[in-house]
């Protein structure tokens, strides 16, 4: 399962949870594809925000729970980890290079998307729900 959340300020404005559409060779590649999909959503949200003239669209921060993906995007070269990744997923690298998107590592323990993509223990589930502020 793959998923992501997007916030505008503190408001949750977009989310996705779906079965990944292709078989991958590694966790890094699987996460890279999810982040690439999320990057397309970022581009659309940035366009919407720009059209509505309601906010700053300089750089969007995307928090990823896989250090390998963050490193791969920063230093994309044709080596063992990336040579088999389809060229269409390199939109992510383009957005980072244009400084429209910034990837940051974010610990797995507090990844909100895990609410829809993982089986969680009750305590962790309640923590993530609290972080989403859905208790009210």
Give structural notes.
The protein has 136 residues and is α+β, with helices and mostly antiparallel strands. It has one domain. 41% of the residues lie in helices and 18% in strands. Strands 1-2 form a two-stranded antiparallel ribbon. The chain has a two-stranded parallel ribbon with strand order 3-4. The longest helix is centred in the N-terminal third of the chain and has 26 residues. The chain is globular, with a radius of gyration of 15 Å.
State the order of secondary-structure elements, H for helix, E for strand.
Answer: EEHEHHEHH
What is the number of strand segments? Answer: 4
Structural class: alpha+beta
CA-atom Rg in angstroms: 15 Å
Largest sheet strand order: 1-2
What does the main sheet amount to?
2 strands, antiparallel
What would you call the shape? globular
**Helix run count:** 5
Overall average pLDDT: 79
Distance between the termini: 28 Å
Instruction: Work out the helicity level.
Output: 40-55%
Strand content: 15-25%
What brief labels describe this structure?
two-stranded antiparallel sheet; 41% helix; two-stranded parallel ribbon; 136 residues; alpha+beta
Task: Give a brief rundown of this model.
This protein has 136 residues and is an alpha+beta fold. The chain has five helices and four strands, in the order ββαβααβαα. The strands form two sheets. A two-stranded antiparallel ribbon has the order 1-2. It has a two-stranded parallel ribbon with strand order 3-4.
């Amino acid at each position: 399962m793959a998923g992501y959340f997007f916030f505008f300020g503190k408001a949750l404005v977009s989310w996705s949870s779906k079965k990944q559409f292709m078989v991958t060779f590694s966790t890094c590649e699987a996460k890279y594809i999810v982040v690439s999909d999320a990057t397309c959503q970022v581009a659309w949200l940035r366009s919407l925000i720009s059209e509505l003239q309601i906010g700053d669209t300089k750089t969007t921060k995307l928090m990823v729970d896989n250090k390998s993906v963050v490193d791969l995007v920063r230093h994309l070269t044709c080596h063992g980890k990336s040579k088999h990744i389809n060229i269409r997923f390199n939109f992510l690298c383009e957005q980072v290079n244009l400084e429209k998107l910034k990837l940051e590592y974010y610990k797995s323990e507090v990844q909100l998307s895990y609410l829809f993509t993982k089986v969680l223990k009750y305590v962790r589930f309640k923590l993530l729900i609290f972080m989403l502020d859905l208790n009210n």
